[in-house]
Amino acid sequence: MTTPVLTLDGLTVRIPTAAGTVHAATDVDLTLTTGQVHALVGESGCGKSVVGAAICGLLPTAATVHGGITLHHPGSVDVHLDRAGARTWRKIRGRRIAWIPQSAATYLTPVRSVGDQLAETCRHLRSTHTPAALLTRVGLEPAVAGLYPHELSGGMAQRAAIAFALAGDPQVIVADEPTSNLDPDLTEHTLQLLRAAADAGAAVLLISHDLDTLPDHTDRIAVMYASRLVETGPTAAVFADPWHPCTRDLLAALPSGGLHPIPGMPPTLTDLPNECVYHRRRPAPGFSGGPTYIAQHGDRSVRRLIGAVS
Ligand SMILES: Nc1ncnc2c1ncn2[C@@H]1O[C@H](COP(=O)(O)OP(=O)(O)OP(=O)(O)O)[C@@H](O)[C@H]1O
Ligand code: NI
């Protein structure tokens, strides 16, 4: 049985920049559940990492957040992360929510061995695991503990990143493109490790561009376009019968879909109206713009245009 662990309720993130206010995430509703791997996909710059960063309390300080980010724990009170201060985050990060970055090299200190840093993380989190057990769990030899970060191959570094994330037995794991630098074998191995973490009870959010790998490795998918979710549902159902034109176009751009790139360019996020703008990229029949709404059908949802013909 799956239980909701983390709920995003109308998450809206705005980032002020010299070029204007970036609409980085708008009205994002998403529930992460125990034991499931949830994919978050969409074109580059659509806001996926911002959603992941919001869940992990890692947004830039200038960002403003509206809407709810709620962490649930059976038998305990909900934690409202959208209002959490530094003290709450110190208790939560690593222990209840962990982040797996794209490259482990970005957060490891070059001057200390992997084992040293993993031992320090375990002490800090009061982990019940030893560094050796964590390395074994992600398929690394115990001898890797003695290596320095620059001595790790890309695949080893990514496994090490997962070992660090597993140290605190987090309820939620956010992995931001963990396979983007890996060959197919290492990609497969990394996705299996995320599946194992979910099987052990975590809710995993996998931000990914490798759509072809998702049906085999994820339970649910959320498709994002220009800061908004346009479609969510079980991965197999969405791949078999995509409802939103954006999802259809993303799938058609894959080798398995015939390699048809999406025409046009993604919009600039500093100048967005209060509606889904995919119809501007790919005009819908008989529709020239206007508000959208989310239609819910069982365990699937799709953003529809009010007044569109189809
Ligand atoms: N620190 C920041 N300051 C200003 N703008 C930012 C910042 N971080 C992200 N953005 C902007 O927010 C928008 C969403 O970015 P985000 O990194 O979430 O996209 P993404 O979907 O993860 O893209 P990619 O697939 O390339 O990683 C982009 O327009 C980006 O330029
Ligand atoms: Ni990103």
UniProtKB/TrEMBL annotation:
One of its GO terms (molecular function) is ATP hydrolysis activity. Residues 6-251 form the ABC transporter domain. Keywords: ATP-binding, Cell membrane, Ion transport, Membrane, Nickel, Nickel transport, Nucleotide-binding, Plasmid, Translocase, Transport. It is found in: Cell membrane. One of its GO terms (cellular component) is plasma membrane. InterPro entries: AAA+_ATPase (IPR003593), ABC_Ni/Peptide_Import (IPR050388), ABC_transporter-like_ATP-bd (IPR003439), Oligopep_ABC_C (IPR013563), P-loop_NTPase (IPR027417). It comes from the Bacteria. It catalyses: Ni(2+)(out) + ATP + H2O = Ni(2+)(in) + ADP + phosphate + H(+). It is a peripheral membrane protein. One of its GO terms (biological process) is peptide transport. It holds the Pfam family oligo_HPY. Its EC number is 7.2.2.11. The keyword Nucleotide-binding applies. PANTHER family: NICKEL ABC TRANSPORTER, ATP-BINDING PROTEIN, OLIGOPEPTIDE TRANSPORT ATP-BINDING PROTEIN APPD. Belongs to the ABC transporter superfamily. The complex is composed of two ATP-binding proteins (NikD and NikE), two transmembrane proteins (NikB and NikC) and a solute-binding protein (NikA). This is Nickel import system ATP-binding protein NikD.
